[in-house]
Recover the amino acids of this structure.
């Protein structure tokens, strides 16, 4: 077990639903409630120092949404993979864009494509400002597995309704 | 009669740069709030090229998705091919034969040269030095000829596949490539003389668009943008893939963080790429180029991601599988996406004329931003 995983487990032992530590990579699964305190520690603890957000995305399993974060520590070059499962009927999670400014656009992308809401995101109030890749007035979230667009006739306006 | 002076204040102006403007290198729109010629705030608007490639990939078997990646970073298609090929190999536990790995490194580095030459030409043109464009495209033309001889295409190569590469080097390729590299080093010196010491060029680049080390890390910058800000972060060194661990090359790092530093990193990278290409040609073993994959390729359920160093930075592909023939999710970490995200933090306080220099120095490709 790596020193990095041991250090995280000392503080967040119970909050970790799954943990797996390797030489270069640590994989963690946490509940949405534990995400914020864990990430604050990951960012600020000098022994961890995961200051670099390498990637973040979501996927739809049909039953729930899985958020997937990839963090890198610039001092140890260790990679940390963080997975969070969100319920499909109420996909909301805390925004981490203030910890890693690079996450700002990635969270907008996850809202745009999956409809996951990020509480505390600077553009959270206005869905039109949250949209990033799709047109501002697009309806529905096309990367959801049950997305079935009804073609409105105008390709620029997107679907009129989703079912 | 006495003259009095009053200070005139005017409301700020909103200026739309793009989406159809040659300096944005694609379809990017920047909404900037101006006070005089100083930028108060900037909001990049992207998505004009969004084709839903990642969603389309969910409806196709893994290996059918490689041609889509040509349309991500269209200046370095081979590097984009590599990102998805590597992810497919990781999720399906495929090992690429040694010669295939060498050929990948060889071709990716040739593609890096072509991509950096486009940067050199367009960046100088943005700043008013139109001559460099003609010279750098002369060299790029010869590279495209070589790539055409190898892959059959000049822009969308679709040549790096899951498992290796489909064809071996054509007859006389090594000699042609060596002859090109011998001349290329003199061409690079020529660009250096044209630009690096040029007073006008330096005045437009030095101290312009400074990205601090902390900012580059926080915003997820990678590639030449990160290395221009003093971060020695190159995936080819920190997480070597294929045969990069056997290659001898240096990672150029400059600490200034300005447009000049990013330019210098790319010029130096071209010299290093030439070194890698020569080593590949010298050390490449004989053998198979492609691993045997089953006709119906069903990787075990799970997820995998690749990490590759494209000319723009860390390009990685995330795949998730449910055990069926098609991936359930494909996601690309596009370096240009992160670099454009830097603009709202970088541009306030900058003169509007410098936006062109800053945008050019980030070397973004909108195809991979919008996906």
């Amino acid at each position: 077990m790596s020193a990095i995983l041991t250090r995280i487990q000392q503080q967040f032992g119970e909050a970790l639903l799954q943990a797996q530590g390797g030489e270069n990579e640590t994989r963690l699964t946490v509940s949405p409630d534990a995400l914020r305190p864990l990430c604050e520690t990951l960012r600020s603890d000098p022994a961890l120092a995961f200051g670099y957000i390498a990637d973040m995305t979501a996927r739809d399993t049909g039953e729930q949404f899985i958020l997937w974060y990839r963090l890198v520590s610039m001092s140890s070059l260790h990679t940390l993979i963080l997975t969070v499962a969100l319920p499909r009927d109420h996909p909301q999670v805390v925004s981490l864009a203030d910890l890693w400014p690079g996450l700002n656009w990635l969270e907008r992308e996850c809202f745009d494509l999956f409809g996951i809401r990020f509480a505390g995101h600077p553009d959270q109030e206005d869905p039109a400002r949250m949209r990033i890749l799709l047109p501002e007035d697009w309806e529905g979230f096309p990367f959801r597995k049950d997305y079935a667009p009804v073609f409105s006739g105008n390709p620029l306006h997107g679907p009129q309704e989703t079912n | 009669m006495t003259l009095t002076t009053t200070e005139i204040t005017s409301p700020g102006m909103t200026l739309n740069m793009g989406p159809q403007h040659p300096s944005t290198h694609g379809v990017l729109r920047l909404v900037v709030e101006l006070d005089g010629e100083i930028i108060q705030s900037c909001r990049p608007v992207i998505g004009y090229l969004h084709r839903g490639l990642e969603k389309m990939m969910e409806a196709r078997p893994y290996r059918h998705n490689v041609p889509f990646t040509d349309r991500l970073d269209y200046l370095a298609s081979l590097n984009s091919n590599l990102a998805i090929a590597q992810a497919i190999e990781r999720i399906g536990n495929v090992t690429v034969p040694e010669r295939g790995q060498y050929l990948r490194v060889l071709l990716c580095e040739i593609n890096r040269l072509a991509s950096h030459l486009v940067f050199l030409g367009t960046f100088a043109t943005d700043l008013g030095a139109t001559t460099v464009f003609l010279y750098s495209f002369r060299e790029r033309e010869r590279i495209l000829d070589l790539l055409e001889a190898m892959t059959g295409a000049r822009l969308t190569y679709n040549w790096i596949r899951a498992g290796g590469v489909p064809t071996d080097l054509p007859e006389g390729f090594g000699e042609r490539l060596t002859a090109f590299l011998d001349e290329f080093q003199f061409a690079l010196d020529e660009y250096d003389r044209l630009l690096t010491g040029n007073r006008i060029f330096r005045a437009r680049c030095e101290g312009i668009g400074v990205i601090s080390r902390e900012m580059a890390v926080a915003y997820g910058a990678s590639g030449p943008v990160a290395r221009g800000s003093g971060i020695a972060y190159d995936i080819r060194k920190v997480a070597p893939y294929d045969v990069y661990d056997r290659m001898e090359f240096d990672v150029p790092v400059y600490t200034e963080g300005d447009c000049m530093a990013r330019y210098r990193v790319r010029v130096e990278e071209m010299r290093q790429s030439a070194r890698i290409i020569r080593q590949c040609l010298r050390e490449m073993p004989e053998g198979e180029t492609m691993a045997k994959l089953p006709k119906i390729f069903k990787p075990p359920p799970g997820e995998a991601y690749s990490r590759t160093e494209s000319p723009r930075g860390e390009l990685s592909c995330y795949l998730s599988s449910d055990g069926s023939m098609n991936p359930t999710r494909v996601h690309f970490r596009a370096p240009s996406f992160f670099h454009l995200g830097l603009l709202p933090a970088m541009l306030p306080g900058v003169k509007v004329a410098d936006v062109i220099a800053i945008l050019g120095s980030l070397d973004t490709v909108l195809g991979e931003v919008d996906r």
About this structure: The helical segments of chain A are 3-12, 32-44, 103-114, 127-130. Chain A touches chain B through 26 residues (CB under 8 Å). The mean pLDDT of chain A is 83. The first strand of chain A starts at residue 16 and ends at 21.
